[in-house]
Write a structure and sequence with these properties.
By secondary structure, the protein is mainly beta. Among the domains are: 40 residues, no CATH class; 118 residues, Immunoglobulin-like, CATH 2.60.40.10. Helices cover 4% and strands 28% of the residues. The strands form four sheets. Strands 4, 6, 7, 8, 10, 11 and 12 form a seven-stranded mixed beta sheet that branches. A three-stranded antiparallel beta sheet has the order 3-5-9, with no helix packed on it. The protein has a two-stranded antiparallel sheet with strand order 1-2. β13 and β14 form a beta hairpin. The longest helix has 5 residues. The chain is rod-shaped and about 140 Å long. The termini are far apart.
């Protein structure tokens, strides 16, 4: 890949080394530069039927962006196609038709833009508090009515969310446990322990009222005997 720009001078004035050194400052060049400088690649064009599929670089998949004007980046490993079609949509199926040059409408929509470089400075595409899907389709050949442009396979679909800082936080849905029917547990009546009542005194006999009965004798106070019920 080559970089170029123009430095004005007159007569025999030498071009200072500073401007030439800036050729190596990556942050000043597209896709980072806020003003235009030239970038181009050399090499043979891809043959028909062999257009390389671009790889999405920025933003990362599922990233959150805090700007409506990011610079979208993609790349190819070898020979650069002549043109790229960059598509954006609020639906993963890229439904709703491709709008051009209009502000983002209400509801779902899709937009596409053409770029001759492996990046796109986004304008009038994105909307706050919205999830977007995007992909890049490479092409070769000349466009226009008399051209023979051929489009290759699209890149993988990436997604990102735009949040400028005022998007509502989703309210978590409370988890409701399934209703349960109370179960009736039968009450068990304890089985009495067998007791031999005969021969027990009055105090012992009265400890087993379910099995034994104390029969008093009126011949003398406290006299009596214990028998089975």
């Amino acid at each position: 890949m080559y970089r170029w720009f123009v430095i004005g001078h007159s007569g025999g004035m030498e071009v200072a080394g500073g401007p030439r050194a800036r050729l190596h400052e990556d942050q000043l060049w597209p896709p980072n530069s806020s003003y235009f400088k030239g970038v181009f690649r050399t090499g043979p064009e891809r043959p028909s039927g062999g257009i390389e599929v671009p790889a999405l670089v920025f933003p990362e998949n599922c990233a959150t962006l805090d700007t409506l004007n990011p610079t979208m980046l993609w790349d190819v490993d070898a020979r650069m196609p002549l043109v790229f079609m960059v598509q954006f949509s609020t639906t993963p199926a890229f439904a709703g038709g491709m709008l051009l040059g209009t502000p983002p409408p209400v509801g779902d929509y899709s937009k596409q833009f053409q770029s001759n470089r492996p990046y796109l400075d986004v304008e009038n595409i994105l909307r706050d508090c919205t999830k977007f899907y995007w992909r890049v389709i490479p092409g070769i050949g000349e466009g226009g009515s008399g051209g023979s442009r051929e489009w290759g396979a699209p890149s993988e679909t990436g997604s990102f969310y735009v949040n400028l800082g005022q998007c509502p936080t989703p309210t978590p849905t409370p988890t409701r446990l399934p209703a349960t029917t109370p179960m009736l547990v039968p009450t068990l009546t304890p089985t009495p322990i067998p007791v031999v009542c005969q021969g027990l005194n009055q105090q012992q006999c009265l400890q087993y009222p379910q099995q034994c009965t104390w029969v008093p004798q009126f011949t003398m106070p406290g006299a009596g005997y214990c028998r089975d019920k």
